[in-house]
Amino acid sequence: MAEVILAGAALDRATTLLDAGEVVAIPTETVYGLAGDATNGAAVARIFEAKGRPRFNPLIAHVADLAMAERIGVFDPLSRRLAAHFWPGPLTLVLPLRAGAGIHPLVTAGLDTVALRMPRGFAHGLIAGLGRPLAAPSANSSGRISATCAAAVEADLGNRIPLVVNGGKTPVGLESTIVKVDGGRLLLLRPGGIAADEIEAVAGARLERGAKGVQSPGMLASHYAPNAAMRLDADAVRPGEALLAFGPAWARDAGNAVAVKNLSPAGDLREAAANLFGFMAELDRSGSPVIAVEPIPWEGLGEAINDRLARAAAPRDKPLPPT
């Protein structure tokens, strides 16, 4: 089983393992990440192996500063403005891959672009000390619920990796927002921990939706899924279902639910985002075959919450239509 070490005492051990080509589960402000040296093919392969992740699905390369990012990706003026405003933080930029960047091809999944993010906290210090970018998808089995605490990582991946760094519950609770500048267009590839309207205010441009194909991490149709089926926009609870509620007024016949978790009794979308994956996992453990989910507003972070719920509910063998 993996060692579990509190973040305040884990830096040296994590750095040693990463330097040796191992993978380490680390806290970020979004969700826990399964980190490996993005320049080391064996380390990146260990990430895919531990997660059971399809190798056509690219990874985000996490950096410590803009200088490291510029050695990897080619910045246009708008991407640079977004980085200056939102980094460090939960924004990922998809950029043209710079020639000679040193990023292993497994990270980019054969694309001529690279997804870059600068995290906060323990992850930031770890990358700075290592001096190399880290590939770090969410620390969970591929397609399953992302981990927002160390205990969830240990329960899922503890027998596959050497170390879990315990940094407590992640404050954002959703993966990063992913955007790409394509000519004069600003594309939203994945909604996430920064709301689209915040990005549009800084960019001075509207984010376009509906990108097709796998252009970045987080674009597979079925993802973030519990074992239970997900029934979205439920206005009533059927006997034997678990209920994922939102706001002060619950769905009709909520007494039928075998278990209930409320993302935010006050209807606060930021609180709901932070609780989403943890509450989904708790309801999945209830043993109910179906989780009924109350409607979530689409404004602000609600777009990202609804994106995760739609992917969790998607048929496991069918594509999710672009939004």
From TrEMBL:
Enzyme Commission number(s) of this protein: 2.7.7.87
Taxonomy, superkingdom: Bacteria
UniProt keyword terms in alphabetical order: ATP-binding, Cytoplasm, Nucleotide-binding, Nucleotidyltransferase, Transferase, tRNA processing
Subcellular location: Cytoplasm
InterPro entries documented for this protein: DHBP_synth_RibB-like_a/b_dom (IPR017945), Sua5-like_dom (IPR006070), Sua5/YwlC_C (IPR038385), Sua5_C (IPR005145), T(6)A37_SUA5 (IPR010923), TC-AMP_synthase_SUA5 (IPR050156)
Pfam families from the UniProt entry: Sua5_C (PF03481), Sua5_yciO_yrdC (PF01300)
PROSITE patterns in the cross-refs: YRDC
Keyword Cell wall biogenesis/degradation among record annotations: no
Residues in YrdC-like domain copies: 8-194
Catalyzed reactions per annotation: L-threonine + hydrogencarbonate + ATP = L-threonylcarbamoyladenylate + diphosphate + H2O
Similarity comment: Belongs to the SUA5 family.
Function: Required for the formation of a threonylcarbamoyl group on adenosine at position 37 (t(6)A37) in tRNAs that read codons beginning with adenine.
NCBIfam families named among the record's database cross-references: L-threonylcarbamoyladenylate synthase (TIGR00057)
Record-given protein name: Threonylcarbamoyl-AMP synthase
